[in-house]
Amino acid sequence: MRTVSMWIVALGAAITTAHGQPDQAQAPAGPVRAYSLMREDEDWSFLNNPSLRQDFWDPIKYIPLGSDDWYLSIGGEAREAFEQVGNDNWGKQAYTNTFFLERYMLHTDWHLGRHVRVFVQLKSGLESFREGGARPIDEKKLDFEAAFLEVGRAQGRNWIVLRAGRQELNYGSGRLVSPREGPNVRQSFDGVKIEGQTAGWRVDAFAVRPDLDKPGFFDNVPNHQIEFWGLYATRPLRRWVSLDTYYLGVDRQNAAFNRGVGAELRHTAGGRLWRPVATQERDWDFDYEGVWQFGSFGAAGIKAWTLASDTGYSFPTAPLRPRVSVKADISSGDDPRKSALGTFNPLFPIGNYFGVLADTGPGPVNFIDVHPRVQTKLPRSVTVSADLVAQWRESLDDGVYAVPGFLLVPANGSRARFVGYRPGVEVRWQIDRHAYLQADYGVFFAGEFLKQASPGRNINYTEFWAGYKF
């Protein structure tokens, strides 16, 4: 992979030279039975104590293979979704598209002593009844989502682990790098990653290619059109506040923007300051992030940026335990009168970037948005949230892009800034640790730009989910 070998050496060295204070706040107080977004992050080794085995699935979460450090853990997921989209792409598909999505995942986690681990995860995503056929995010009949070898052990104050093979990546809030959880088919990568911790800094370095999803059986291959590498470091500061800093590099042979198509070499440098949502007492939470991008696009340069914020306040002891929050974000668009490309690239963002409308509507490129939200908790583990997203174009010379970053609506000479607004509601019932039901509904009301540059019809979106994890 071009340019990557030297990055592996440099990034690996960075792990051993970071500085900071020990992370004491995030050490778990006891066994954690929650299912993680990244299933390889789960630790079921505590089940070597038979007295702690309480759940129906516990016998397969810890299967002894000899000594305590040799064991196998098995887990999986089933998710069914009924999705209905009316006037997709604001009327370019001027009909109501109703379809059914199925996701099945199964993983085995082999711990072969203290320092060797093999993790294998299968995925199957199926689509039925969608007019126009399945999109790449809808269908993957059967393949490996992950299949990696890990050498080392993440234990103590200072450690280092090497991971090689197919794997998922997830960093920060998922604004730039995530496994794409919302859509039916998750994103994975092929390559190597070094994880480490020293003096309180948790540091990852990686060099990968994104996995190119094809719809068949075991036919996925690395995307040889794209190289992706990076360094991500995080550490706690004080009062539950943490700091993330990172560098990400991407080399795409064929990148398409409103300006045109060309080779893209883009460097991303950013920082994130965040505090998690309060769970015990009334308190503030926040997530603030700033990013600068530079590099080259064809014969031109790149100068792009984004600022993102999410500020919330929780009332965990009040009736319905509400949390109120406001997101406010802005990312740069292009001005063709300037030599450098100004369109921000979100790289590999979280699939449901704006919540409701998980896989349709505008994405975090060339936009300004304000996004208030209220979430409440009802009895029997039912949560209800309502939100409103209002969106404008940052540059009047650039178009509207999808969440993954491809162009949806070109500028087409329109000088209107307002893209539209979307009210939405979500209801989720977490039946128990394993099962949940969820319903989402939203309407994206087209603004003046969409009415000028596209058919400009309102998008109606409804989705019902049912899921089970073990």
Characterize the structure shown:
The protein has 470 residues and is mainly β. It has a single domain (4-469), classed as Porin, CATH 2.40.160.100. 6% of the residues lie in helices and 52% in strands. The protein has an 18-stranded antiparallel beta barrel. The longest helix is centred in the first third of the chain and has 12 residues, at 4-15. The chain is globular.
SSE order, as H and E?
Answer: HHEEHEEEEEEEEEEEEEEEEEEEHE
Mean pLDDT: 92
Number of helices: 4
**Total individual domains:** 1
Number of strands: 22
Q: What percent of the residues sit in helical stretches (DSSP H or I)?
A: under 10%
Largest sheet: 18 strands, antiparallel, barrel
Q: What is the CATH T-level topology?
A: Porin
* Content-based structural category: mainly beta
Low-confidence stretches: 1-28
In CATH, the architecture is: Beta Barrel
Text of the CATH class: Mainly Beta
Computed CA radius of gyration, to the nearest angstrom: 22 Å
- Taken as a percent bin, the fraction of beta residues is over 45%
Terminal Cα separation, in Å?
37 Å
Shape: globular
List the helices and strands and how they pair.
Layout: H1 4-15, H2 58-61, E1 63-64, E2 70-87, H3 88-91, E3 93-112, E4 116-128, E5 140-152, E6 159-167, E7 189-198, E8 201-212, E9 221-222, E10 226-236, E11 242-257, E12 260-275, E13 283-297, E14 300-314, E15 323-331, E16 367-378, E17 382-392, E18 400-401, E19 407-409, E20 418-430, E21 435-446, H4 448-453, E22 459-469
Antiparallel strand pairs: 1-2, 2-3, 2-22, 3-4, 4-5, 5-6, 6-7, 7-8, 8-9, 8-10, 10-11, 11-12, 12-13, 13-14, 14-15, 15-16, 16-17, 17-20, 18-19, 20-21, 21-22
